[in-house]
Specification:
This protein has about 290 residues and is an alpha/beta fold. The relative contact order is 0.18. It is built from ten helices and six strands.
């Protein structure tokens, strides 16, 4: 990336890679005293810079229907089309965390609604799913699928429809129970090894979540009811304010997409600029 110089990397490192912005987690057959001794041995002379740690001003405004984008990246030579539904979501220490991961579990996974509707029932993709990514100060939601070019618009519509139905349709305990079980199984597997255990507690510490949440995980997931999932879906991943990005051979799906959405933006792959908020190269005026 020609815009990034060596001095930029050095500045980032000196500004943020510092002991008052770091967490050390040690796990295994080791006593606390030995752990602190190792930390002192290898990191004891790591000093904070003279300048204070910058305070990051990060906000995650709620997406709105008026702010939704239906964006097509046209790659005429593409053999397939990628469809993504994306939006801002909650950060990691949000009280809705457990509602969120259970809601996402209903959509995600082989037996989740997205894969069942798009792959199993219709054969439009080898796999469809969703991801709720939550960090210390920000969060995002993404649902995605890969499909053949002519079915790009259909997969986009199906993806948004499944997100919408999560908020408005029926959700029975018979469906919710196995989706919660998939979460609990994954959590149990993540705690089976020393590395997994360390990763779990490192994540909690990094995102400012009380460490004893690990003890409450199972009960917190089990406590989520269908109404909790529907409430989260309606307020946090509402389909009407979720943007859609489709990358592929636009000539094969664009007419159908424009029938569904009035304002479709099309950017040629050659004009794409990922360093711009508009995602499009600016045209210089001579």
């Amino acid at each position: 990336m020609p815009r990034i110089k060596r001095d930029d990397i050095v500045k980032i490192h000196s500004t943020y890679y510092r002991p008052d912005n770091a967490i050390l987690v040690i796990g295994g057959d080791i006593t606390a005293a030995n752990g602190f001794a190792l930390a002192q041995k290898f990191f004891g002379d790591w000093q904070n810079p003279a300048t204070p740690l910058p305070r990051l001003q990060i906000t995650t405004p709620e997406s709105t229907a008026t702010g939704r984008r239906i964006l097509v990246i046209d790659q005429p030579a593409a053999g397939q089309t990628a469809v993504l539904a994306v939006r801002s979501a909650i950060n990691r220490d949000n009280p809705d965390y457990f509602r969120g991961i259970v809601a996402n579990a209903v959509l995600n996974g082989y037996s989740g609604r997205l894969n069942w509707e798009i792959r199993v029932k219709r054969g439009l993709s080898y796999g469809a799913g969703s991801f709720l990514d939550m960090r210390r100060s920000a969060g995002s939601f993404m649902a995605s699928a890969q499909t053949k070019n002519p079915s790009g618009a259909e997969v986009a519509a199906l993806t948004l429809a499944e997100i919408s139905k999560l908020a408005t349709g029926e959700l029975l305990d018979s469906e919710l129970t196995p989706r919660k079980a998939s979460l609990l199984g994954g959590f149990a597997r993540s705690m089976e090894t020393t590395g997994g255990l360390v990763n779990q507690f490192a994540s909690l510490a990094l995102y400012g979540v009380p460490l004893d949440e690990a003890n409450r995980y199972v009960a917190s997931v089990q406590a989520i009811k269908p109404a909790d999932v529907k409430s989260f879906a309606a307020s946090r991943i509402n389909a009407e304010s979720t943007s859609v990005v489709i990358v592929g051979k636009a000539s094969e799906f664009l007419p159908d997409l424009q029938k569904q959405f009035p304002n479709v933006e099309v950017i040629a792959a050659s004009d794409l600029d990922l360093n711009s908020a508009a995602l499009k190269k600016t045209v210089s005026k001579n």
